[in-house]
Structures are given as C-alpha cells and as structure tokens.
Design a protein that fits this description.
249 residues; alpha/beta; Elongation Factor Tu (Ef-tu), domain 3; Rossmann fold; 2 domains; 5 helices; globular
C-alpha cells in the first residue's frame, strides 16, 4: 500500500524520554494502528494555525507489539521546521497526525535468519533498535552484531538498553565507535565505520549475513560501498538513508 492510500490518524503523546542532549524517544498512543514490521517508518504532519503544513518521515524504533502504541526517535535538526517543535514544545497528551506503517524493503522479522549485521550512524539506529527489540521480544537467537557510530559518547542513543542487551550474551554483540574523540576509559572503537572496521568487526562474506545500514546519506553510501568491496553480496545489503532535513529516503 502506498502512503497516499494510508489514512491519517490522530495519535496522542504518551511520554517523551531524553536519549541525548539532542534527541528524545517519543511514545505515541495510536488508536486503530494496524501494526508494523521492524524497520518500517511513518509520516508525521504538523499544521500551523495559518494552515501551513510540514511533513517528515520517522523510523519506528519500537518492536511490533500488537498494541496501539509505538515509539519514534527524534534528533534535533539545526534550522529544522519539525524536530525543534517535537523536542521543545510537544507535551504529554498533545495530538499528532501520522500515517503508516510505510515501507516493506528495509524490514527484518524474527525467523528470517541471519547472521544479522546492523550498521547505524547517529539516529539511523532507530529502525535497527526495532529489529533488536523484535528479536528480544520473540526469543529469537539469531547472531547479531550492531556497529553503531556517533560523534560523542553523549550522543549514543539507547546506550543503557544496548549495553543491557549486550550483557545478556544471547548472540548479540554491540560495537560502538566515536568519531569526535572518546572520554577517558572508553573501551569501544574510535573513528568512522569504514572498510577496515567492517572487515574486523562485521561478519565475513562467506557467512552471508543479512545486512541493514541506516544513517545520513554519505555514511550509508560509504558503508555500502565498503561492504561490497569486502565481498558481501549486494542483494543482501539493504539501506535506508536520510538527508539534511532528516527525511528518510
């Protein structure tokens, strides 16, 4: 079903939790929500008093739960029209217009198999969180490695939850890397995710992992090119990217 055929629904803000100084996880109650797959996204629309509308797409970060509640992760876009409102003005109980779920290509369902290599840059970790949460909720034990890049340790979204998932030692491994310096005592990686890091910390091509890459366009293109150069099959690499406005592409 294309987005133009999806109905706009009125959601209500149930809660908003800071994930960093620049991002929040926003929980929404959505009556009539049909459910979603891990990796799908939604369109969100704001309408001003004068009738002006602004629309953006946000990945759904919650696992499919069979209930009319879902979560999106919103990171501030400098000079943006939508994210400052969502982060600064939105309050519990406020209504929002949204439609979805949208997209069927960038999805993973427990039982699809693996191993699973997830590569995220910044807020591009949002749909990957949905996949990890779906895996945990279902009891799936597919081997998963998440390579997650952020500028600073304070900008690592869902850090406490990811650390907790990694501590469960059920086949999930977290590899976090910082691109703008690391604090004293940091034991993760440093620098951008590129061919060398993907070769050292990802699954080898002969294991034929399912690969999902999400983040800013330059990040996604560089990672996808590096994965192909390492010998991974292009058909097993799925990408989702966003531009300067934060729109998914």
């Amino acid at each position: 079903m294309t987005p133009t055929h999806l109905p706009w629904r009125i959601a209500t803000v149930a809660a908003a939790k800071p994930e960093s100084a620049r991002a929040k996880a926003i929980l929404l109650d959505v009556p009539g929500w049909p459910g979603h797959l891990a990796g799908q996204h939604l369109d969100l629309r704001l309408t001003a008093d004068d009738g002006y509308q602004a629309q953006r797409s946000y990945s759904i970060s919650s696992a499919p739960a069979g209930e009319p509640q879902l979560e999106i992760t919103v990171e501030r876009v400098d000079d943006g029209e939508v994210s400052p409102f969502l982060l600064d003005e939105l309050r519990e109980g406020d209504p929002l217009e949204l439609r979805g779920p949208i997209g069927g290509y960038f999805t993973w369902v427990p039982g699809d198999g693996g191993p699973l290599l997830l590569v995220g840059g910044g807020s591009g970790v949002a749909p990957l969180m949905a996949m990890l949460r779906a895996r945990t909720r279902s009891g799936d034990r597919t081997p998963v490695r998440l390579l997650y890049s952020a500028r600073t340790v304070d900008e690592l979204l869902y850090r406490a939850e990811l650390d907790r998932l990694a501590d469960e030692a059920d086949g999930f491994e977290l590899i976090a890397t910082l691109t703008r310096g690391a604090p004293e005592g940091w034991t993760g990686e440093q620098g951008r995710i590129g061919r060398e890091m993907l070769a050292a910390r990802g699954f080898p091509p002969e294991e034929r992992p399912r690969i999902f890459v999400c983040g800013p366009t330059p990040f996604v293109e560089a990672c996808a090119d590096a994965l192909v150069a390492l010998g991974h099959e292009g058909g097993r690499i799925k990408t989702e990217r966003f531009g300067p406005t934060g729109d998914l592409k």
